[in-house]
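FAQ

Q: What does a record look like?
A: Structure on top, sequence underneath. For example:
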């Protein structure tokens, strides 16, 4: 009886709201994983993720990786990267809600920045909220839309959400561009890690340096890009020509 009374004493309005939020989060996850990721088109999947806050992050609907804390090291090292590789223009796709980049871009006001995302509502939101010189937002599908002329494609926190096929299509599309570099997220794993395939919209630990992708182990530039409790990740830089050399073998491996 004493334990029951103790439990009843904990049932406050705040506690009830917390329980309801947990239930809503789990229902949201189940809906996306069993319905949206299976039956929706790619743009509809990411629209639903944005609309329903699939990742459950308070600060950013783009997920926990887009918080200022998780992107802190990148924000700090952003100016050094731009200077070292003489970056004057960036295509950031997907740009998400511009949460952390809004801070990083302030260190480089002369940089030409294009933020692209497949979700029209995100682009509408960004164009309404931000009016920054040299900053533009546009609807952009990395798997098929022609890349604009830029010095680097920032593909942060995206490939581990895509199926292997969509990753290949994005890389193939990138190779058709004139952009010299790709700066992308890479998960840090054991050497025996297996890169599994997923439905686009989900998540898995993805090490691009391992099969079937086999990106070069040596990168041009690399920094830590995650903090506990998120899985360990790095932001890694490769050239377009390096990616181009990988595509034939990747195509064969994926049987596309």
């Amino acid at each position: 009886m004493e334990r029951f009374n103790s439990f009843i004493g904990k049932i406050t309005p705040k506690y009830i709201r917390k329980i309801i939020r947990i239930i809503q989060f789990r229902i949201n996850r189940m809906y996306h994983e069993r319905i949206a990721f299976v039956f929706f088109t790619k743009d509809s999947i990411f629209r639903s993720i944005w609309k329903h806050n699939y990742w459950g992050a308070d600060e950013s609907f783009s997920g926990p990786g887009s918080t200022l804390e998780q992107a802190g090291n990148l924000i700090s090292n952003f100016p050094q990267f731009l200077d070292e590789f003489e970056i004057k223009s960036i295509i950031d796709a997907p740009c998400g809600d511009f949460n952390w980049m809004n801070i990083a871009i302030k260190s480089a006001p002369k940089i030409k920045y294009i933020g692209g995302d497949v979700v029209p509502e995100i682009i509408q939101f960004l164009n309404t909220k931000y009016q920054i010189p040299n900053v533009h937002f546009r609807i952009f599908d990395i798997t098929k839309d022609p890349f604009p002329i830029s010095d680097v494609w920032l593909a942060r926190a995206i490939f581990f959400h895509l199926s292997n096929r969509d990753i290949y299509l994005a890389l193939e599309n990138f190779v058709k561009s004139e952009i010299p570099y790709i700066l992308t997220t890479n998960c840090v794993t054991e050497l025996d890690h297996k890169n599994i395939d997923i439905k686009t919209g989900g998540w898995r630990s993805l090490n691009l340096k391992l099969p079937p992708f086999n990106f070069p182990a040596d990168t041009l530039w690399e920094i830590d890009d995650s903090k506990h409790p998120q899985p360990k990740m790095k932001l890694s830089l490769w050239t377009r020509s390096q990616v181009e050399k990988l595509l034939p073998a990747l195509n064969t491996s994926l049987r596309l």
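Q: Is there anything notable about this one?
A: The chain has two domains: 2-39, 64-254.
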